[in-house]
Write a structure and sequence with these properties.
By secondary structure, the chain is α+β, with helices and mostly antiparallel strands. The protein has one domain (2-64, 81-323): Nuclear Transport Factor 2, Chain: A (Roll), CATH 3.10.450. Helices cover 36% and strands 20% of the residues. The chain has helices spanning 2-22, 86-89, 91-109, 122-149, 196-215, 218-224, 227-243, and strands spanning 33-34, 189-190, 245-265, 268-285, 291-294, 300-311, 317-323. Strands 1, 2, 3, 4, 5, 6 and 7 form a seven-stranded mixed sheet that branches. β4 and β5 form a beta hairpin.
Amino acid sequence: MRRTARFLTLLAAAAFVLAPALAEAAPGGRSSSGSRGARTYQAPPPTNTAPQPARPMERTATQPSAPATAGAPGAAARPAAAPGGFFARNPMMAGLMGGLLGAGLLGLLAGGGFFSGLGSLAGIMGFLLQLALIAGLVFLAMALFRRFRQQPAPAGVPNGMMREAQPDARPMIGGGNTSQGGRGPAQPVDEIGVQAADFQAFERSLIEINAAWSREDIATLSRLATPEMVQYFRDDYAALAQRGWKNETRDVKLEQGDLAEAWNEGARDYATVAMRMSLVDWTRDLKTGAITEGDPNARQEQTELWTFVRVQGGPWMLSAIQQTG
C-alpha cells in the first residue's frame, strides 16, 4: 500500500511539473489566443469548414468589458495587466515549484516522509505543495479533456474549398459548399468586401507563420502577426525551452477554408477565417532526440479559426487563433 501511495504521489508531481508544456505545440500552443477587436468575446459564426463553435479566448489582452463598447466603431481594447497563463509568463516560478516537489519526493522515496527534504520549510510549504499536487491533477485532466475535444471532425468533402475555374474565384471561400446534407451554414457576413487577393494572403500567412514558428524566427513572426500574438509565441517558446523541448511543423497544406465574418472598426479591418489544414507536427527532446508529442512521419488534420487585422488598408496580420470544438 505504501509503495502504491508513493507511486501515485510521484505520478501527480510529474503531471504538475510537465502539464504547462503539454499544450505548447504548434503556433498558438493549441489554445485560443489573441484579440478580435470588439468581438473578442463573441463566438465567430459557424461555417462549412468549422460548424462547431470556437472555444472562448484563453489568452487575450482585451478586457471582458470590451464587448460593451462594440457599438462604437474603432473602440480601442485596453490591454489586460498580464496576458497569458501564470506559468507561461513565469517559467522560473514553474521551475521553482518543480524543484520543491522534487525535494519532497526525494524525502518520501528515502523513507523520511514527503516533506523531510524541505527541512524547516515543511510546516509552511507542506500545505501549499499538497494544494499544488491537487492543482496539477486538475490541470492534467483539463489538458487531456481539451486534447480530446480538439480532435478534428470527419471531413465532409476532401479539399472542398470550391476553387472555381473563373478568374475572380475566391480561393478560400466555401461558397456553395453544402457538404452537410445540402444545408450548410448561412452565408458569411462580409462588411468590408474581402477580395480574392485577401484570401490568398490568409493562406500564405498560414504557411509562412508555421514555417517561422519551426525556425523560431521572431523577426518573421513580428512581420506577420500582431505584437500580442508574438508575445504568446515567445511564451510558448519559453515553456518548451524549460522542458528542453522543441516543436516543429512542416508540409502545411490548407485543405478547406471559408470566411466566418469580416468587419470594420474605425481604421481597422478584421476578418476571421475557418481553416482545415493538414500538416506534420511533432515535439522532440533537444538532448535525447526522443519524440515527446506527435509523429514526424505522419500527417494530421486540425481545424482552427484565424483572425487577421489590417490598419488603414495595410498588410493583413494575424491577431488571433481559436480552436474549435
